[in-house]
Design brief:
By secondary structure, this protein is mainly alpha-helical. It is built from 26 helices and two strands. The protein has a two-stranded antiparallel ribbon. Strand 1 and strand 2 form a beta hairpin. Helix 21 packs antiparallel against helix 22. The chain starts with a helix and ends with a helix.
């Protein structure tokens, strides 16, 4: 063993080849020939080496002669060598030898060995950098596409062994191979497919990664796995209590969400899905996957969650989702996850898409469901921007209800008043931070101005005049008081800053509301304070207009 390795490392591969091929050496080669793999693999990776043909001849002879058990151990050891520079080349070099060795094993040992080998190879492939553009995928700059293609070639003979072929077998070996392949494909969906952005055929006609994803779904079907059963598993498995660890290994949530994305966004394997499932049922199922994806901090996963929700909602008729669906916890979770995406995602594109999908969700609710959803968000959300957006939606619904020929009892009269009470209130009374709640306050003022103009006192279709005195006490008077206090505070800050800047231009601190801003120059500080005062002017102008309109109507 030592002499053989030394000869290979020192360039005497021809001598080793002659001994390995000698008939008298075959018993020794069969027993310990695999121990030459470390030196051989290093030599094979040096493709320009003059002894490369000898390395290859020795390697192939060992694959044919050595016992498969020892061969598998030797090859797996080489696969596990940590060398960043040769990781891809080493993996591609060893795939076919590993496949041939596994096929030489006896059936009882082959299934478990297959699982270990696939897991090891997946660990290596999943560590490769991901292509971020279609050009990187086309050029395969990180070799990920080639590795994925080779993985599919690697599993092909085992799929043929385990495939049902319309004749289910009770063979223990076949069942074990199916189980190992199942785990491998779910791992590929989770660790590779979910992490990459698949290009549409219009963008990239021949996409290796899209082909890889499509092959996974085909192979899952070939070994008897129901794709609809996997997609709908979040709902159906609630009725069972399987072993938790086994369930997470066989059906990780990431993999199930990745599968749903392939089916409903990229329309893969749709021919395997029955047409009997209603769009509402499909929505309920996919909401589980969507919420899981949106809970991630990874922008690719969040984007896929938004795409899946959008495609699923597009199958649902507008104004059709009943209020009963809001009793399902997932809908509340969806609202919370979308709020996080719209407000905290660092990418503008993701925030914009989140808002678009949020509005699409609202559009699918019927009137009662919209009413209930608006009240729910106003009660549970503390984000001024989202509160303002909901109030703007309320205004649109009221405007629609007041149009001739439209009957909508939920956004008028008796039903509307309780919702308006959630709108026309300051979160912290007169001491509310008006800049922090700028969006909410401005949209509330705009809605109130609209109602005062649009709804005559004699008609009172919205019920606004029935409850107006209470709204004055809970909203208008505290707002007027808060505006006066805030303006006085900021004018004092501005005056102090102007005096300070005349004495010495130095960096200083400024507090806006209850927040201390980073150090600013006097000019920057004055600009921020002027901006705040301008916001107060905007609020006051709308407030004054409302007071004028109310006074005019009172006189009439």
């Amino acid at each position: 063993m030592i002499a053989g390795r030394s000869c290979i490392e020192e360039g005497n591969s021809a001598q080793v080849l002659s001994i390995v091929l000698d008939d008298k050496s075959q018993d020794l080669v069969r027993s310990i020939g695999w121990s030459l793999f470390p030196a051989l693999v290093e030599g094979l990776l040096r493709k320009e080496d003059k002894d490369h043909p000898n390395y290859l001849a020795i390697f192939n002879h060992l694959l044919q002669t050595c016992r498969p058990k020892e061969l598998l151990i030797g090859l797996q050891e080489q696969l596990g060598v940590e060398d960043a520079q040769t990781k891809v080349e080493r993996l591609l070099l060893l795939m076919q030898p590993l496949q041939k060795t596994l096929l030489r094993l006896d059936a009882p040992r082959r299934a478990s060995s297959l699982g270990l080998t696939l897991s090891s190879m997946m660990d290596h492939v999943a560590e490769l950098p991901l292509p971020e553009t279609k050009e990187q995928e086309q050029d395969d700059v990180f070799s990920l596409c080639r590795c994925c293609s080779e993985l599919m070639e690697f599993v092909r003979p085992f799929i043929q062994e385990a495939a049902h072929n319309n004749k289910p077998s009770n063979s223990t070996y076949e069942q074990e191979v199916r189980a190992e392949l199942h785990i491998f494909f779910m791992s590929a969906l989770k660790r590779i497919v979910l992490e990459v952005r698949l290009e549409d055929p219009e963008t990239l006609e021949l996409s290796p990664l899209r082909s890889f994803a499509s092959d996974i779904l085909k192979h899952l079907s070939a070994i008897g796995v129901s794709l609809p059963g996997l997609v709908f598993l979040p709902l159906t498995r609630r009725k069972k209590l399987p072993d938790f660890l086994e369930e997470e290994t066989r059906h990780p949530k990431d993999a199930l969400a990745s599968l749903a994305h392939l089916v409903y966004v990229h329309h893969m394997a749709t021919d395997t899905f029955p047409c009997v499932f209603s769009p509402v049922y499909t929505l309920r199922v996919n909401l589980e996957h969507v919420c899981h994806l949106l809970s991630s901090t990874n922008s690719t996963r969040i984007q896929k969650g938004l795409d899946l929700l959008e495609k699923t909602l597009q199958r649902v008729d507008d104004h059709s989702l009943p209020v009963e669906l809001l009793e399902i916890k997932t809908f509340l979770t969806l609202s919370q996850e979308l709020e996080k995406v719209m407000t905290y995602s660092p990418e503008q594109e993701v925030r914009t898409k989140g808002l678009k999908v949020f509005q699409l969700t609202i559009d699918k609710f019927d009137h009662e469901a919209k009413y209930t959803f608006f009240k729910l968000v106003l009660k549970t959300s503390s984000h001024s921007g989202l509160q303002g957006y909901i109030i703007k939606n309320i205004k649109n619904q009221v405007d629609f209800a007041l149009q001739p020929g439209n009957t909508n009892s939920w956004f008028g009269g008796v039903h509307l008043l309780p919702l308006l009470r959630f709108v026309f209130i300051l979160p912290d009374g007169p001491e509310t931070d008006l800049l922090k709640f700028l969006d909410r306050v401005m949209e509330s003022l705009n809605l109130l101005r609209y109602l005062v103009i649009r709804d005559k006192v004699a008609d009172n279709k919205t019920g606004i005049w029935t409850d107006f005195s209470q709204m004055e006490e809970s909203f208008l008077k505290p707002l007027r008081f808060g505006l006066n206090m805030s303006r006085a505070h900021y004018e004092k800050e501005l005056s102090g800053t102007m005096v300070g800047s005349q004495v010495k231009a130095e960096n200083i601190n400024v507090s806006v509301g209850d927040q201390t801003l980073p150090q600013m120059t006097p000019d920057s500080q004055m600009q921020a304070l002027h901006s705040a005062l301008h916001m107060f002017d905007m609020m006051e102008s709308v407030l004054v207009r409302i007071e004028e309109l109310v006074e005019t109507k009172d006189q009439k």
